[in-house]
Amino acid sequence: MKRKCDKCDRPATHHSVEIIKGQKIEKNLCDEHAAEEGLLVKAVHTPINELLSNFVKIHSGGGGGESKDLTCDNCGLTFAEFREQSLVGCPECYRAFEKGLAPLLERAHEGATHHVGKVPARAGSGEARQQKLMRLRKRLSDAVSAEDYEMAAALRDDIRRFEEKSS
User: Fold this and answer.
1) What percentage of the chain exceeds 70 in pLDDT?
2) 126-145 and 149-166 helices cross at what angle (nearest 10)?
3) How many angstroms separate the CA atoms of 85 and 92, rounded?
4) Helices 98-108 & 48-59, crossing angle to 10 degrees?
5) Hey, which end of the chain has fewer CB within 10 Å, N or C?
6) Burial profile 12-35: b = 16 or more Cβ within 10 angstroms, e = fewer
7) 83-138 pLDDT, tens per residue?
8) pLDDT computed for residue 142 by the predictor
9) What is the C-alpha to C-alpha distance for residues 51 and 44, in angstroms, rounded to an integer?
10) Helix (H) or strand (E) holding 53
């Protein structure tokens, strides 16, 4: 059953429940009456391409200096065109515009410039975990090469425990 606005016959698009001094007060209001009561906050929806374009324009240093003269040798796109469109023309554009894109990507990804994958929060820092695991595996490989099988067995067990603890 569709509800009607408490103040008119239009369909109710907002439903609110307030409890004041133990009394439950329900309101069913249309957009107009919800706005009158301060319940409706009009959200301005900006298209994603416009948000990206604005972000690129703001954070790419205004296009001054060396980066404004950059052109992709593969597709011919200029850095200025990239700033306007927020789209690269081909994979080679990333190399051609590296000087202009690097600071932009760092700001957009909070300083990260390399993909390290996802790691569950309980596993701690993914990068630190991966590095420790790589060091253990390298030591295991060195121990096997040196025919130090006792050390290799201990490292193998350490790796297993580390992997089990992280999963």
Assistant:
1) 69
2) 160
3) 17
4) 110
5) N
6) bebeeeeeeeeeeeebbbbbebbe
7) 777 788 888 888 888 887 777 777 766 666 666 666 565 555 566 778 888 899 99
8) 92
9) 12
10) helix 48-59
Name the amino acid, one letter, at 134.
M
**Which DSSP category does 24 fall into?**
E
Q: Which amino acid is at 116?
A: V
Q: Quick one: which H or E segment has residue 18? A: strand 14-20
Report CA-CA distances (Å) from 15 to 20, 21, 37, 124.
16, 20, 12, 42
Q: Residue 144: which of 159, 164, 127 has the closest Cα?
A: 159
C-alpha–C-alpha distance, residues 16 and 24, integer Å: 10
Residues 76, 43: contact at Cβ < 8 Å?
no
Task: Look at the block and give the residue holding tokens 């253990």.
Answer: 136
Give the integer Cα–Cα distance in Å for 46 and 32. Answer: 22
Residue type (1 letter), 128: A
Give per-residue pLDDT as tens, 107-116: 766 666 666 6
Residue 124 corresponds to which amino acid?
Answer: G
- pLDDT recorded at residue 64: 46
pLDDT bracket for residue 63 (50, 70, 90):
very low
